[in-house]
Structure formats: structure tokens, C-alpha cells
Design a protein that fits this description.
The complex is a heterodimer.
Chain A (H helix, E strand, L loop, with lengths): L4 E6 L6 H10 L3 E6 H5 L10 E4 L13 H20 L3 E5 L1 H9 L15 E3 L7 E9 L13 E8 L3 E3 L2 H9 L3 E6 L21 E5 L5 E4 L15 H10 L11 H13 L1
Parallel strand pairs in A: 1-2, 1-3, 3-4, 4-11
Antiparallel strand pairs in A: 5-8, 6-7, 6-9, 9-10, 10-11
Helix pairs in contact in A: 3-4
Chain B lengths: L2 E7 L6 H14 L5 E11 L4 H12 L5 E4 L9 E7 L6 H14 L8 E11 L5 H12 L5 E7 L32 H10 L9 H9 L1 H9 L7 H11 L1 H4 L6 E6 L5 E5 L1 H16 L3 E3 L6 E6 L2 E9 L1 H6 L1 H17 L6 E11 L14 H17 L7 E6 L8 E11 L1 E2 L2 E2 L10 E6 L9 H5 L17 H16 L5 E4 L4 H13 L2 E4 L12 H6 L5 E6 L4 H10 L4 E7 L4 E6 L2 E7 L11 E6 L18 H9 L8 H6 L8 E3 L2 E2 L5 E2 L3 E3 L8 E8 L8 H19 L6 E8 L13 H22 L3 E7 L3 E5 L5 E5 L3 E10 L16 E5 L2 E2 L6 H6 L11 H16 L5 E4 L4 H13 L2 E5 L5 E2 L4 H6 L6 E5 L4 H7 L5 E8 L3 E5 L10 E5 H9 L7
Parallel strand pairs in B: 7-24, 12-13, 19-22, 30-31, 36-39, 38-42
Antiparallel strand pairs in B: 1-2, 1-3, 2-5, 4-5, 4-6, 7-8, 9-10, 10-11, 11-14, 12-14, 15-16, 17-20, 17-21, 18-20, 19-21, 22-23, 25-28, 26-27, 28-29, 29-34, 30-34, 32-33, 35-40, 35-41, 37-40, 38-41, 42-43
The chains are: A alpha/beta, B alpha+beta.
């Protein structure tokens, strides 16, 4: 198979496009940052790509609910093309603002292969404020999610003001039963955060940090895997380096950060 | 007929905004509320059908999972209602994105004058609430009457079918744009008109202005265009350009400096030239990494072979003081346009903040416009939204509390960017306009915003300062423009770019036209927010999010194509010429025609008397204190002081990692909760090079001598860089001066001469230390009128002036980020070293301040000695034998040993009798003296020899070790005189004390 091609959305206040493209490139893909309008006016064809990434940022300033206007625009203008993309078995990842957008488009949770219904929401953090911190995530190994294969406990940064995962009880139950809950906020050791702040940074119901559709090919998450693209992104790296040095071990320098492993999984899957 | 949508969270959902208000009402005013629910109101003033309203109600404005909405008032329970909306003409960001979304989903365009307005309704319940309580919440928490209007409803007032009614804050000017001629028959007439029109012309400039317009050849040339007396637009242009804000008249002034101690008098001609420009030019020749300084919107340094970094710093004090949120967001979004307008354009990579405000718990009798607590909340949120929504990390910042900032707060904002060194074969740092280039305005539209902003910030703040200069920045519009302009840059379409900030088009076009030597502007082409602006208003409006760009006519098509792709408005508004004139027309009629070089010469230099009284002559002395006995509580109390304690809640609101290159974060340590000395980013993701950045503020020392304030501030910024792995060969600086008024007036400013002397001394220290440390000043700004008149208890007013303040920012390039070091202790058994000499320098220290003293022995910098130590530490870090490095700053050794221990979440045992000292022989002096030039370093025992070899001959000592049991233990057992020192505090208790003041804030 030749290049795995990734479309990384950009424009209208989105802002993680550069590092998301970089992270996909590190993972072995060819990534292209594409302005939403280039996709709408047909200058760039979605069809030519294997993976579509909805990235972090503040689309339209997040003024009327995070990811809402982005979702409305994409759904109105190229909703059919995106559904076609999904039906062809291609991959979609929505990170932070991108997660908010695909949830509002209805791409997630995609119950009964209905990819247009809004049934879950990402709303204001319980703390009432934006928060940047690193979190521990427990990965559901029983999930069919393509992106998290082989991952267990990982650490990633969160940076959002509207990341509280919310839905009514039947929907939550169904997500859990279907193993569509992919990652959950956890305590440093990996036990469930059970809503405790700041380990669960936003008050998400059942500590839910990311979900996928039933196929595992559409994945949305609040934490930023592209924010952990290098050893030195981790907040504890200088401590770890010092400890490893004392042991005469410098393997850490060549490790693949957890964030990049998610993108690698996607690239491997397409191959 | 307008529509009004009310949107609320479903009743069973937590309303985080409402909860926040409930908490603040209790914490700030002691008002107990049972519940607060917030309702968003979207008022649509456009001809839409009911069906269209249904579509947008469900499609855009209502999340079916979390929200309910209605075109009639939502029946939410309340005892009182507060409604808050914007005043006409105030930027309503959600209103404009709503228009975009509605147009998109309905596939239509709003007609001229149609718009969407957003507002909020708060439903409040509580026992025994009275109108006064609600008014307090409305006025002191929710609405600022400068930009917002509010209404209060009791149960009796509320009509459940009408709700708030239809409130349309539309600007209607009903005014025909008019150019007026201004009479200059005498200096007195012009002075009167200047006062009436709020032109803020300096009386000394008036004869020069009149001379120009009365010159024969000028009159002749003007008559050909139909002009005779100067027009309002011409005088506004001159006023803007001559303001202290734009022209830096103070720094370019003539100072008659006299030292009362020595009796020596001297004249200092132009502080900018002698103390900033000259040393920087000298260093530019010496340092090949200096790429571009002293002319552009930001200075540039070499990052690597293919990239330059750029840096600049600004303040936005006066507007923030009036409207904290709006002022701060406008400030940070505004400073981001400087790198964007540097060279042919730079991508933004980092921002930082510095807030100086009155005490958060102030309960005295002075009544500032905004209580310091509210002001701080507002500026924090403004920088948060401005930075986060721009997608630019905000990893560094400082907050400083002092009574002097009650008169006017300080809001420092700093921005860094990066540009490729070459664009389409052309040097990226260079730019110029040529005759024939088109003048293009990109981004936002022009309204009455910010008119007379620069002249207002060049005045002392008074109760009559016009509120019109307060704006709300729009990071969304600017982010779109940023992405667009960088794409246009990369295609080689931009020949010149600069931002529209202070002075608006008047400044940006005035400056850019210097390169081609002239321009012709068609004012009617400029897109307006609403009709009815006078020509002079269009020309000097400071409406935000606009750049001025020069484009070759052949590139126009592609430029506009990219502009459309990015949904950015760009308009050709004229062309550059070589006529030697600024020629402004409105519908083909000339309204301004002045020589480009009018401002270059002939205006009188500002003059100041500067009288230096040394501290002893001012009656300062060392306080008489006997050594304390309870060091445990002393240290704990110092850790809880507002200028020492943890401010984690601010750092965490700021996205400090976006763009993916975070290396050293603002908060570090085992629990990620202690402040890093500096931050490091990796702006080019596939490079192992990093940019280290730090800032320092230490205005307290100005109460003794601003010379030492300045040198200590710079030294601190440098040490902060060294601690993370910065390179002493490459340090760029940015100076931001914020000074009280220095113009002497026997009644209004009786100590003006002293403050002027402080400025001269500060500038001299700046030059001296920058030369010694070899720091070229890549950028810098000054803000000169940090004074305010506050009402007291009896209706009297008090002038409150800030301490003489310098914020110094420092940047360095790190070759290999894998070698960076953080400040916290790492591993038990590691040796703890103190580097540098501790002297008896408690003057203006945190320790003295704790007891209410100033003292006399202000800390002093000895660059010659210090540099050797800094280079040695740099060498040790580079060799990888340093486990942690932390500077000793405000609070002294005691406070900073605690920081190292808290960071590591490990114990630390130290004997301060071993600390290298000179004249410091008491426990409290060694522990709390703020001598600069010092570090705490931890080193693995196995590296002891190598480390000590590198430091051979320099002042250093191993004073203890990192321990497993989590306790800070400090004694003076090695020295009989220090036996009374006995500290033993658990790390948890240290953290508790350090986090006590603000630990509950989120």
C-alpha cells in the first residue's frame, strides 16, 4: 500500500492543525492541512484521503456551544460526503473541539449506524473554567476502537472549558455496554477517577474522556494525543530522565510517546 | 419584527456559570444566594420567517441533549432577575458568529443594518434578598456600565409573557460625515480647539504646527487640492503621531539630572538613544544572531539556519483599568498583531502576561473604578480568552499585588513569533512599500472604537477620561486573518505588513508610507461597522483585528482569493506613491494633504527636571529587629504572602501547551504545582532546538532606588533562563517601563522630579547591565502615566501612583532541549548546593515588607562576578550533571529552599551556616536576604567532583541533601551565631501554607 493520506481540518479558528498533521507524519502518514472552505468548494476532495481529523481549537470562537457552528456548517455543506467517507470504512478522529464537532454532527455515538443524530454532548466543565493539565486515562481494552489498540494506561494533556461528557442514563448505559467508551479519566495508578477533580478534570459522567462508534473507526476524545508527540511534552520528563540516567538507561529517548501510538494504530489499520 | 430566543441548560443540569456567580456573591459580598441559573438570549434583528427561526433554533442554538430554548421567556424560577447586555457599538463576538452561522445554515445574507445581539438573563433565588444586594451583584460582578447595560426585575416587575422585551443595541448615528477646517489664527485658538476636541496637543507643539500650515509653499500646494486651514483629520493625524504613546517623547526627552548628594548636575539628552539604542546597536555588531532590531513591530533573533524568532512586549493599562476583561483581551490580541506585522509576517508561537494590581482583599476607604479583586478576575479572563482562542500557548506570567497599582493597574502582554528566514528567495525580515503598491486593509471593520485611545493613555487617569477607548478584542476574527496572512506571505504576496493598533490607519499608513514616500488614500472605501463616522474618525479609529498590507497590483487577484478562502475581509483603500505627501480623499475630495516629513523635525523636545535624593537623605534606614525565634511560623507566613504564594489557578486557565511544543511548563515538579523558573518551547516541531523564555518584575526595590530595581530585575530574568538550560551567549531582552508621571508640577505632581531621576537611573542600569550581560534589547515599550485619582471616604480624592516598574523579558535559544533542567529536587540523597554570595541585602525585601519596613540595604548586582558563575552553571547543565537548578528570588533562600522541596515532594536538609556569605551572619539575613546572583542546585552524589571542578574558584557550597522523609529541615549548626535557626516543617504543611490564599480558586 502506498501513502496513508490524512486530511487535517483547518480554518475558522481551529488551531491544532499543525501539530496534528505533524503527529500523523511521525506516525508514518502523509498529512495535509485543509481549510474547511477548500473542502466545501471542492478544491480538495475528501475522497482522496483515508483518515479525516477534526482538530482542536475554537471554531467560530465556540460562541454558541463548542463545536456547534462547525458541525452545522459541515453538515449543511458536505454532510453527505462525510457520511460517504464513513460508509466506505475510512477513519475519523475528533480531538477536543473536533470531538465536540463530531458529536454535534451526530457522527458519534452512531448508534444503529445512524451518524446524524445528536445524543451525547460535551458541555461546560463543572469547575466553570478552562483547564490545562495532564490526565491519566484508563483504556478500555475490550473496545473495538482502532486508535487505542495495544494501549492500556496512558497520560495525555487536556485543555478545554467544555469537556464534560453528558447524556441521559440509557445512552450512557448503552455506550458502556457496547464498549463504545474507549477512555476514562483515572487516578494516577489507573483506578477510576469516579468524578474526583482534578483527575476527572471536567465532571464527565462516568469519567468518560473518549468514545467510538460501534465499528471502532470513528473516535472522539477530549485529551490531546497530538500534544504528546515528543518525550519532552510529558510534564514529568525531566524527573524521568534523571532517574533513567542514574540507571544508565537512555532508552526513553527513542520511545514512541503514547499520543503518537494512537496515530500509528490508525495508520497501521489503513495499511 | 425582531425575534428573541432564550436558551438555558436543562433544569437538572449543573449550571457552572450560575454556580460561579453564587460563590462570588458569597465570597466577595457575603450575599447568600440559593441558586443562580443563567439564560442566554439571542435577539435577532433581521427579516426572517418563522420557519427560518425554527431551523436556526433547533439547528444552531439548542443542543437537544443539554439545553432547552424558547421564543418566549423561559419559565425559570427566580426571586430576582438580572439582565445584562452590551451597550450600542460594543463588540458582540457571539452576535457576529451567530450571523455567520445563520447565514450559512439558511443560505442567505443579512441586509445592511440587520444583526444579532446576545445578552444574558440571570435568575436568582435566595432568602431575604433585597434590591440592594441584587444591584450590588449586577454592578460589581456581572455588568460594567462602560460597556454593558443591566436591568433588575423583582417578581413584581417581571412580566412573564414580555420578558425583557426586545432590546436592540444598534448604533444609529444619523450623521453626515463632515470634514471641518480648524482655525489657527493664534496659538491660543488652536490650544482651545485642542482641548475642546480632546486632541491632547502638547502646547509646545502648537507653534510648530501653526508654522507649518502658514508656510507659503505649504499654503500654495494645499490650495491646489482645495485646502487652506488645516482640517480636523490633519490635526488628528498630527496629534496621534505626536502622542507620547506613539512618539515616546518622554524617553526621547531632555533630562536635567542633579544628584543632591554630590551636588553634580548633568544633562541627559534622549534616554532612548543613549541607554537603549546605543547599547543594542553595539551588541548587534557583536552578536551575529541579532537579525533585526529597533525599527520593526518586534525584534528578531536567529533561531536556526532556516528560522528567525521575533519578540515584543506591550502594556494595556488604561483600558484594563476601566474594563478589565475588555482591556486585557484587547491587549493580548493586540500584541499578537505585532509579530504578525514583523518582517513580512510571523506566526505566533507564545504569549505571556504580567498583572500588577492592588491587594485582592483590599478593604480600605479608597474606591477605584473596579475593586482589585474584580479587576484581577477580569484581566485573567481577558488574557485567557484572548490567548486560548488564538491558539497560542500562554505558558509564563506573573502577578504582583501592591497598593500603588490601585490608581492604575498594569497589564503586560508579551508575544513571540517565528518566521522562515527566506520567503520566495527574499529575506523575510525585510519589508518596504514602493510607489504603485496597493494599500490594503484586512480583518475587522471600522467603528468609533478606541478613538483617542493613544492620547487617553498618555494622560493621567481621571474620572473624566472618556470611556470610548474601551474595546473587546475578537481573537476569532484575528485567528482567521493570521492564518490567511501567513498563507499569503508564503506565496510571496506581501511586500509590507503592519498592524493597526494605537492610532489606527493614521499610524499604520503614516509609517508604511515612509518607505515609498507618500500615499493616496480613498477613505470612502474603508468598510465601516455602521454609517455616520466622520472622516477623521475613520482615519484614527482603533477598531481591532486589522492589518495594513502592501501588495503589488499584479498579486491582488490571488491575495483576494486567499482572503475569501479564509473568510477574511480585505479591501483596497488606496496606493503608495512617491509624492512626499499623505494625501487623503473622501469621494474624490481632498480632506488631508500634508508632507510626509512634517513630523520628522521641528517639534520641540520634551524637557524634565530630575532630582536625585539618595535613600539615606530621604530618611530611609535599616529597621532594628532582633532575630526571630519561631522560624517555622515565619517561613510559613512568608509562603502565604500574596506575592509569594501559589497562583496555580491562573496558570491552569491558560492553554500553555497548544501547538504541541511544550518542553518546560509553567508548573513543574512531582505534583506539577510549583512554578518553573522559565518556560521552554519547541517552536519547530521537528527540531531539537528550543526557545527559553522568562520574565521578572521587582518594583519593590524602587522604593529605595530604581537603579537597583532595574539591575535586579534583569539579573533575575537572566538567572531564570540559566536555570532551565539557557545560553548566556544568546539572551535577547524586552524592556517594558511603567512609570508614574515624571513631569514636575508644584501642586499636581510635587515629586515629579524625583520620579524623573528614578527613570534616568533605571535607564542607566538598563544600559549598564545589558552591556555587561550582552543582552541586546530586541524590543521595548514605555507607558508613562501610571497614576490615578481615587475617591476617599469623604468625597475627597487621592492621587495614587504606582511604584516605578520595569518588566524585563528574556529569551534564549537552547541547542538541545533534551538537556533542559527543572527546578524541583529529584532524588533522595542528592546534594544541595547554594551558588553565589549572600549579602546583608534585606532592603525592600519580602521579609521587611512582612513587618511593614522598607529598609535601606537594597540588593545589588555585580555583573562581572555573576557572569562567571552563570557560565559555570550553564556548563554544568550542558554536561548533564545538574539534577535541578532554581534561582533564589523574592523571599530569599528560605522561601526558595521550600520551593525546591515542594517541587520534588521530597525532604531537604540544609545547614545555612555553610552558605557562602559576605556580611550576612544572622539566620534571618541568610534566609531572607534577596541578594541576586544566587541559585539552589541539586546534584547526584556521583557528580560531586565534576560539579565542584566546574565551579572551582567561584562562591558555592554544598549545604545539605535531598531526603526521603518529606520534611524541610534547616539549621545553623555549623556556626554558633546561627544556632537559633531551627526549621522543620513537613512538605504538606509547606504546601498548605503556600496554597492557602488562592488554593480554592479555579
Amino acid at each position: 500500500m502506498s501513502d496513508v493520506k490524512v486530511l487535517v481540518l483547518a480554518g475558522y479558528g481551529l488551531n491544532c492543525d499543525h501539530e496534528t498533521a505533524y503527529a500523523f507524519e511521525l506516525a508514518g502518514a502523509k498529512a495535509e492541512r485543509v481549510h474547511i472552505n477548500s473542502l466545501i468548494d471542492g478544491n480538495v476532495q475528501l475522497d482522496a484521503f483515508h483518515i479525516m481529523a477534526f482538530v482542536g481549537g475554537f471554531g467560530w470562537g465556540d460562541d454558541h456551544g463548542a463545536g456547534v457552528i462547525q458541525a452545522v456548517k459541515l453538515k449543511t455543506r458536505i454532510g453527505d460526503k462525510i457520511l460517504e467517507f464513513v460508509e466506505k470504512g475510512k477513519l475519523v478522529i475528533g480531538i477536543c473541539n473536533g470531538f465536540q464537532a463530531i458529536v454535534n454532527m451526530g457522527l458519534l455515538p452512531g448508534f444503529n449506524n445512524n451518524y446524524t443524530e445528536r445524543s451525547v454532548a460535551l458541555t461546560f466543565n463543572d469547575s466553570g473554567n478552562f483547564r490545562d493539565d495532564w490526565v491519566t486515562l484508563k483504556v478500555n481494552t475490550a473496545s473495538s476502537c482502532v486508535f487505542t489498540k495495544g494501549l492500556d494506561n496512558i497520560e495525555l494533556p487536556v485543555r478545554h472549558g467544555e469537556g464534560k461528557f453528558y447524556s441521559d442514563e440509557p445512552v450512557i448505559r448503552r455506550l458502556i455496554e457496547n464498549n463504545q467508551v474507549v477512555i476514562q479519566y483515572a487516578m494516577p495508578g489507573g483506578s477510576p477517577a469516579e468524578g474526583r477533580f482534578p483527575d476527572n478534570p471536567n465532571g464527565s459522567v462516568k469519567d468518560i474522556a473518549g468514545i467510538c462508534d460501534s465499528s471502532g473507526r470513528i473516535f472522539g476524545l477530549m485529551p490531546h494525543p497530538e500534544g504528546y508527540n515528543h518525550f519532552t511534552n510529558h510534564p514529568g520528563w525531566t524527573r524521568r530522565k534523571e532517574m533513567m540516567k542514574r540507571l544508565g538507561n537512555d532508552d526513553y529517548l527513542s520511545e514512541t510517546p503514547a499520543g503518537i501510538r494512537m496515530f500509528k494504530n490508525a495508520v497501521e489499520y489503513v495499511k | 419584527m425582531p425575534y428573541r430566543l432564550e436558551i438555558a441548560l436543562k433544569p437538572d443540569m449543573l449550571d457552572a456559570e450560575g454556580e460561579g456567580i453564587r460563590h462570588k456573591a458569597k465570597d466577595y459580598f457575603g450575599i447568600e444566594l440559593t441558586k443562580v441559573r443563567s439564560i442566554s438570549i439571542v435577539t435577532i434583528d433581521a427579516a426572517l420567517t418563522d420557519t427560518q427561526i425554527d431551523i436556526i433554533q433547533s439547528g444552531i442554538f439548542t443542543n437537544p441533549v443539554t439545553q432547552i430554548s424558547s421564543c418566549t421567556p423561559l419559565p425559570v424560577e427566580f426571586d430576582w432577575i438580572i439582565w445584562v447586555g452590551y451597550r450600542p457599538g460594543v463588540r458582540d463576538n457571539p452576535g457576529s458568529t451567530a450571523v455567520e452561522a445563520i447565514e450559512d445554515i439558511l443560505g442567505m445574507k443579512f441586509a445592511r443594518g440587520e444583526a444579532v445581539y446576545t445578552s444574558k438573563r440571570y435568575c436568582i433565588t435566595g432568602l431575604n434578598l433585597v434590591r440592594k444586594d441584587i444591584e450590588r451583584i449586577a454592578c460589581e460582578l456581572l455588568a460594567n456600565d462602560i460597556i454593558q447595560q443591566s436591568k433588575i426585575y423583582s417578581k413584581d416587575d417581571w412580566n412573564s409573557s414580555d420578558g425583557i422585551g426586545y432590546i436592540i443595541p444598534k448604533v444609529i448615528l444619523n450623521h453626515v460625515p463632515t470634514v471641518s477646517s480648524i482655525s489657527i489664527d493664534s496659538d491660543g485658538t488652536l490650544k482651545t480647539i485642542s482641548d475642546e476636541r480632546n486632541l491632547a496637543l502638547n502646547p509646545n507643539d502648537i507653534p510648530t504646527i501653526r508654522d507649518y500650515f502658514l508656510r507659503k509653499e505649504v499654503l500654495a500646494a494645499r490650495s491646489l487640492t482645495g485646502l487652506s486651514e488645516p482640517t480636523d483629520i490633519e490635526l488628528e493625524y498630527i496629534s496621534q503621531a505626536r502622542s507620547d504613546h506613539c512618539n515616546h517623547n518622554t524617553f526621547r526627552g531632555l533630562f536635567r539630572y542633579m544628584d543632591l548628594e554630590t551636588g553634580k548636575s548633568e544633562t541627559v539628552d534622549n534616554l532612548f538613544k543613549t541607554c537603549i539604542e546605543a547599547p543594542t546597536l553595539y551588541l548587534k555588531d557583536k552578536k551575529p544572531w541579532v537579525v533585526s532590531v529597533l525599527w520593526d513591530n518586534a525584534g528578531a533573533g536567529l533561531f536556526d539556519d532556516n528560522n528567525y524568532y521575533v519578540i515584543t512586549g506591550e502594556t494595556h493599562n488604561s483600558p484594563s483599568n476601566m474594563e478589565a476583561y475588555g482591556g486585557a483581551i484587547t491587549g493580548i490580541v493586540g500584541v499578537y498583531r505585532d509579530p504578525l506585522g514583523t518582517g513580512k509576517g510571523s506566526k505566533l508561537i507564545m504569549g505571556s502576561y504580567g498583572f500588577c494590581v492592588g491587594h485582592r482583599d483590599y478593604d480600605g476607604s479608597l474606591t477605584p473604578r473596579l475593586h482589585p479583586r474584580r479587576l484581577l478576575d477580569g484581566v485573567i479572563e481577558g488574557v485567557r480568552d484572548g490567548g486560548n482562542k488564538s491558539g497560542i500557548p500562554t505558558p509564563f506570567g506573573q502577578v504582583l499585588f501592591h497598593q500603588g497599582y490601585m490608581g492604575k493597574c498594569l497589564v503586560f502582554v508579551t508575544a513571540l513569533g517565528i518566521m522562515p528566514s527566506v520567503i520566495k528567495g527574499e529575506p523575510a525580515e525585510q519589508k518596504k512599500t514602493s510607489p504603485g503598491d496597493l494599500v490594503i486593509m484586512c480583518g475587522g471593520r471600522v467603528g468609533k472604537d478606541g478613538i483617542h485611545g493613544v492620547t487617553a493613555s498618555s494622560e493621567v487617569f481621571s474620572e473624566s477620561t472618556p470611556a470610548g477607548h474601551v474595546q473587546i478584542g475578537d481573537p476569532y476574527t484575528q485567528k482567521k486573518m493570521h492564518d490567511f496572512l501567513l498563507e499569503a506571505r508564503d506565496e510571496g504576496l506581501i511586500t509590507f505588513i503592519t498592524d493597526n493598533g494605537g492610532g489606527g490607519l493614521s499610524s499604520s499608513i503614516g509609517e508604511s508610507a515612509r518607505y515609498s514616500n507618500g500615499c493616496e488614500i480613498e477613505l470612502e472605501k474603508i468598510p465601516l461597522k455602521y454609517e455616520g463616522l466622520d472622516q477623521w474618525e475613520i482615519w484614527i479609529s482603533e477598531s481591532q483585528e486589522r492589518m495594513t498590507v502592501a501588495v503589488k497590483p499584479g498579486h491582488l487577484g490571488r491575495f483576494l482569493e486567499l482572503s475569501a478562502k479564509h473568510a477574511v475581509e480585505s479591501t483596497v483603500i488606496g496606493r503608495y506613491t512617491d509624492s512626499g505627501k499623505i494625501h487623503i480623499k473622501y469621494n474624490d475630495r481632498t480632506c488631508a494633504y500634508v508632507d510626509m516629513d512634517l513630523l520628522a523635525a521641528g517639534f520641540p523636545q520634551w524637557e524634565f527636571d530630575a532630582l536625585w535624593q539618595p535613600p539615606e537623605r530621604r530618611g530611609l534606614y535599616e529597621p532594628v529587629i532582633k532575630e526571630p525565634r519561631d522560624y517555622n511560623n515565619l517561613l510559613l507566613n512568608l509562603l502565604s504572602r500574596p506575592n509569594i504564594c501559589s497562583k496555580e489557578w491562573i496558570c491552569r486557565q491558560y492553554d500553555h501547551e497548544v501547538q504541541g511544543g511544550s518542553v518546560i511548563k509553567p508548573l513543574v515538579g512531582a505534583n506539577r504545582d510549583v512554578n518553573s523558573d522559565a518556560v521552554v518551547i519547541r517552536p519547530v516541531l521537528d527540531s531539537k532546538k528550543g526557545l527559553a523564555f522568562s520574565q521578572a518584575l521587582s518594583p519593590a526595590y524602587s522604593s529605595i532606588d530604581a537603579f537597583h530595581m532595574t539591575s535586579c530585575t534583569i539579573d533575575e530574568a537572566v538567572r531564570r533562563l540559566v536555570c532551565v538550560g539557557g545560553n548566556m551567549e544568546h539572551i535577547g531582552g524586552v524592556d517594558n517601563f511603567c512609570w508614574p508621571n515624571i513631569q514636575y508640577h508644584p501642586v499636581k505632581n510635587p515629586d515629579g522630579k524625583f520620579k524623573a531621576a528614578q527613570l534616568v537611573r533605571s535607564c542607566r542600569a538598563l544600559a549598564e547591565i545589558c552591556l555587561a550581560y550582552e543582552i541586546p534589547l530586541l524590543s521595548g515599550k514605555d507607558s508613562m502615566y501610571v497614576d490615578g485619582h481615587l475617591f476617599g471616604k469623604y468625597g475627597e480624592t487621592h492621587k495614587v501612583s504606582a511604584l516605578e516598574t520595569l518588566q524585563f523579558s528574556a529569551v534564549s535559544v537552547i541547542d538541545d532541549i533534551n538537556k533542559c533542567v527543572t527546578m524541583e529536587s529529584k532524588i533522595p540523597g542528592d546534594l544541595v548546593y547554594v551558588l553565589g554570595t549572600t549579602r546583608n541585602e534585606l532592603g525592600a525585601s519580602e521579609y521587611y515588607e512582612h513587618f511593614g519596613y522598607t529598609g535601606l540595604n537594597v540588593p545589588e548586582v555585580f555583573p562581572g562576578r555573576f557572569i562567571k558563575l552563570y557560565r559555570a552553571l550553564q556548563d554544568a547543565i550542558d554536561k548533564g550533571i545538574v539534577a535541578s537548578a532554581h534561582g533564589i528570588y523574592r523571599g530569599g533562600l528560605g522561601v526558595h529552599l521550600a520551593m525546591v522541596a515542594m517541587g520534588g515532594n521530597l525532604g531537604l536538609k540544609a545547614d545555612i551556616g555553610l552558605v557562602p556569605s559576605d556580611g550576612a551572619d544572622r539566620g534571618d539575613v541568610i534566609l531572607f536576604s534577596e541578594s541576586p546572583g544566587r541559585f539552589i542546585v541539586t546534584v547526584a552524589p556521583g557528580n560531586r567532583k565534576d560539579f565542584e571542578r566546574i565551579l572551582n574558584g567561584l562562591p558555592f557550597a554544598c549545604i545539605g541533601e535531598v531526603t526521603e522523609n518529606r520534611e524541610l529541615v534547616v539549621n545553623g549548626s555549623n556556626n554558633r551565631k546561627l544556632l537559633s535557626v531551627s526549621i522543620s516543617i513537613s512538605i504538606d504543611d509547606l504546601k498548605k501554607a503556600w496554597k492557602r490564599p488562592f488554593g480554592d480558586l479555579i
